[in-house]
Amino acid sequence: MVAMKGQKMDIQSVGVIGAGQMGNGIAHVFALAGYDVVINDISEENLTKAITLIGKNLDRQVQREKITAAERDGAMDRISTTSTLTDLGQTDLVIEAATEREAVKVAIFKELVPHLKPTTILTSNTSSISITRLASGTDRPEKFMGFHFMNPVPIMQLVELIRGIATDEPTYNALVKVVEKIGKIAASAEDFPAFIVNRILMPMINEAVYTLYEGVGNVSSIDSAMKLGTNHPMGPLELADFIGLDTCLAIMNVLHDGLADTKYRPCPLLTKYVEAGWLGRKTGRGFYDYRGETPVPTR
Length: 299
Ligand SMILES: NC(=O)c1ccc[n+]([C@@H]2O[C@H](COP(=O)([O-])OP(=O)(O)OC[C@H]3O[C@@H](n4cnc5c(N)ncnc54)[C@H](O)[C@@H]3O)[C@@H](O)[C@H]2O)c1
Prior knowledge:
With 299 residues, the protein is α/β, with parallel strands linked by helices.
């Protein structure tokens, strides 16, 4: 359905799918900006954890005088959770932020679409998967976009807006307004594997893992070299742990498959860490071990 001239795409309620690192940050930012937010996850435990974490993060903002106590309370009141995906059907905007696996995302949209209002805009926070392909599995490719937030969402300024081949102008314009309302800055990217940020960042992280794999440096020397030698605020291995090594590997696979160039081949050591379940901060261990007081390099 093409929006008629002058028809308002007024977005008031937002459904967030996935209550992980990204989902909770996205819910936080939208609730603070005045939107009603419903978060869905298949894991009740992750939903509970997300609400606790949002509360903590909002408290920290109050302590730092970034927001008032009333703003924090208002934001918390606007957030609800559900383990029933179809409860998101009546929202105006859906942001899918579930695990970075295409089959998971496709199944989510398939289940949700029959329950949506015709005007609902569908988006995915995917770091790398084709927006055009995800859109084509829904009933509204013209109302489907990539809406790529950066981690941690409450702090990072950038949002990448990615139009699929069929995305229409009213949808794009509606998201530009949403980005303004949540106080962030948009960069538009074309729909090619990993878009802009991860197309550049992930090969660097992957190369840092190769540098470790080949014994050119250890975890500490690689991170120190990049922090002190190139003024990066975090070393690449520290950053990989922060992003999640499963997500990093998934993005490298999308680059490798999508661009069919061996320069994107994932480092076997990255695969090994993922196979071990050492996914970074979120599991307590990755290139660093986070289970003690201070992070300890694992190599
Ligand atoms: N981590 C990052 O730095 C980062 C940055 C930008 C974008 N992203 C993207 O955001 C998305 C989520 O990443 P994350 O880091 O939050 O992952 P995460 O592992 O922290 O969280 C994923 C959540 O999705 C839930 N989930 C899995 N299947 C589901 C389903 N069928 N229905 C509902 N929920 C489901 C899981 O239970 C989990 O809570 C991915 O697409 C990722 O590429 C991640």
